[in-house]
Amino acid sequence: MVSEPAAEHDDIERAMRAVPRREFLPRAQRPLAHQDRPLPIGRGQTSSQPATVAAMLRLLRVPLGARVLDVGAGSGWTTALLAYLVGPQGSVLGVERDSRLAAWGGANVARTGMSWASIEQAIPGTLGRPREHGWDRILVSAASPALPRALVEQVGYGGRMVIPVRTTLLLIERLPDGRTRATDHGGYRFVPLIEDPET
Fold it and tell me: What is the reported pTM?
């Protein structure tokens, strides 16, 4: 059972202190870890701007014990931040389409000792990771050209998803009656999400 949302501003700040970005960057980028801007991590991808990550996590309102999916896990930084927020009672699965990044990000997460979080390579042709009863929270760190139906369907009852669509950050909420509500939370830039053609 998921507890009431508790990840307010102090929790996000604590998570970002406890899970330093530096540990999730290539060695050459580590001296720049404190800068509030995206940094390249290789394979055409970036570690998102810390202020953007914090804004997304605040919107997501991650409760202790939640089951969370992190789409576009990259270096593993957001997966580890989510793991800190859910605590050992929860679980976080990061999925990453690039096999080398998935392996590196997975190793980065493993080094944190938070065994309830992991990263796997995305299943070809599948966006996200379908799960019975859906996910409590889904974080998407890449921009989609349209809201992907396949991911919306993976949001469980009472769940939330934060996803950039084109340049707009959307919050998707699954209401108790099963309907979904989308709200707009400003403009951002992200690397593109590669979607399943069926979405």
Answer: 0.91
